Amino acid sequence: MFQPTAEPQALDAYSTVVTGVADRLIPSVASLRVRRQFGPGRTAEGTGSAVVISPDGYLLTSAHVVADASAGTAEFADGTNAPLEVVGRDPLSDLAVVRVPESGLDTLDLGNADRLRVGQLVVAVGSPNGLAHSVTAGVVSALGRSFATRSGEHSRMVENVIQTDAALNPGNSGGALADASARLVGVNTAVAGVGLGLAVPINPTTLHIVSELIREGRVRRAYLGLAGGPRRLTPGAARTEGHDWGLEIVEVVGQSPAASAGLRPRDVLLEMDGIAIQGPGDLQRLMTGERIGRPLPARILRDGRETTVTVTPAELKD
């Protein structure tokens, strides 16, 4: 039976975890000030946060924090101020890497957001409203959320986003979201409403994006030129495929790789490159740089009959 005397002990344990994580995070989170140039003589300044990911000066932040940056500085908890340069931005994942001319920086251990559970304690550190190195705590209030991003004419859903009730405000973007072991599990990116914040997860997919940004300064993505949505398969087709859904094509862009392959609206995409397609997310995850220019077999249902076409993705351009 629950004893009232256990409440102070529980609060003490909670405080111990949060203060321990905060002590670990604060030296590894920088406050960013970014200046943007808007025509001759017109500038604006914005703030955000960034997380140290390597001792030699690489920091991870949100792409929108450093968008159109002409100059900027990173301020660390020990008072160090350093100029930053943007190494690479990927608006379609809302991730960016910047670098400062510093060495021996404190880095955080990287976690895996795919292992998070709803209700798990998380701690956020950032610079809300310019208040550097502020700490908030809460729980993972939901998993598997998504939000839309855009770059030029193209849009993309960032998937498996973490929702938390740890207080986030403008300026928290780019800051750290960590678990109770002080492992980085997310990059705070958006305020979804009162008491709700969103963070891009740290997992194998996003770590691949970060590696490309450091290596290439950008992320190469494949492009097919089609739009569609989930379509429930007939019972017979579902038994054959081993899953209940496919991707129904509703639009094919003219002169696109999809059009060249002969794909057309009302086709139902079942599989591409040997991987089952049950919705837009499955197809989006396939559109990686290594598939650009590579002929891919695609199994589809057309007028109730299964057929296979070959589609060769092009590179997605802004």
Q: Please give the largest β-sheet.
A: 7 strands, antiparallel
End-to-end span in angstroms? Answer: 61 Å
The parts where pLDDT drops under 50 for at least 5 residues are none
- Helix and strand composition category: alpha+beta
Strand order of the largest sheet: 5-4-1-2-3-7-6
- The secondary-structure element order is HEEEEEEEEEEEEEEHEEHEHEEHEEE
Report the count of strand segments. Answer: 22
- Helix count equals 5
Q: How would you portray this structure in words?
A:
By secondary structure, the chain is an alpha+beta fold. Helix content is 16%, strand content 44%. The chain is built from 5 helices and 22 strands. It has helices spanning 6-25, 204-216, 235-241, 257-260, 280-286; strands at residues 29-37, 43-52, 58-61, 69-75, 81-83, 85-90, 95-99, 109-110, 121-126, 134-151, 154-164, 176-178, 183-193, 196-201, 222-223, 226-232, 245-252, 268-272, 275-276, 296-302, 305-311, 314-315. The chain has a 7-stranded antiparallel beta sheet. It has a 6-stranded antiparallel barrel with strand order 9-10-11-14-13-12. Strand 9 (121-126) and strand 10 form a beta hairpin. It is globular. The N and C termini lie far apart (61 Å).
